[in-house]
Amino acid sequence: MHIPDGYLGPPTYVAAYAACIPLWRIAAGKVRETVDAGRVPLLAVSAAFSFLVMMFNVPMPGGTTGHAVGGVLIALAVGPWGAMLSITIAVVIQALLFGDGGVTAIGANCLNMAFVMPFTGYFAYRILSSFARSDKARAVAAGVAGYVGLNAAAFTTAVMLGIQPLLHTAPDGRALYSPYPFLVVVHAMMLEHLTLFGAVEALITGLTVLALQQSRSAWILDPAGRETAR
Q1: Are 124 and 152 in contact (CB under 8 A)?
Q2: Which of 74, 137, 188, 220 lies at a 20 to 30 A Cα distance from 207?
């Protein structure tokens, strides 16, 4: 899902940075207000976890990659704003040190993976888990939420790439940035994520939440978004 340099035109990646900068500021403030000292180490652990799972990249048609992210799982551990900061750290390190995702596309990649995914999945979990009456049911809700969140991020990534030929073409009709038409990119991205990568994300999220719920030392968020310790 990482977009490399050269696939987004300046209007798109500048707009993505412009959208992310206030979101990062809000996230920093929300984390200071809502995350207590006992949960702060989870932010670092979450960033490391996201970095690790995103390193297993599978190249895909359309100029991007497919992989798990762990964004919804992190949102359930530290809240969606905390997840945004953790995943942003992972995305920035990958881009600057490993060339995984472009530097110009950091804003776009963060908007998709650090904002769209954790927030979509988090609120999906809030809704689904309100009907759950057992740890297993909540784990299933978490898995479904992970699936929904990943595919939401895949779709917004596909939209960013797919609109490039519509925005930027040379006089001879050549696409200046991502060359793939909108429908080609959407089909390529969504087919892989709705089948393979979504299932992987759902398994990682659901099984980890189940294990956390069964661990007496684990901190998790209840369906109302409050911290609970057992």
Answers
A1: no
A2: 188
Tokens of 175: 């696409």
Question: What dotted CATH number matches 10-229?
Answer: 1.10.1760.20
- Whether the pTM exceeds 0.90: the reply is no
Phi, psi angles (nearest 5°) of residue 53 = -70, -30
Tens of pLDDT, residue by residue over 138-181, are: 999 999 999 999 999 999 999 999 999 999 999 888 899 999 89
Note whether 159 and 134 are within 8 A (CB). Answer: no
Taking residue 158's Cβ as centre, other Cβ atoms within 10 Å add up to 25
Alpha helices for 99-134 (secondary structure H):
106-110, 117-129
User: Are 47 and 89 spatial neighbours (Cβ–Cβ below 8 Å)?
Assistant: yes
What is the three-class DSSP state of 101? coil
Residue 141 neighbours by CB distance under 10 Å: 24
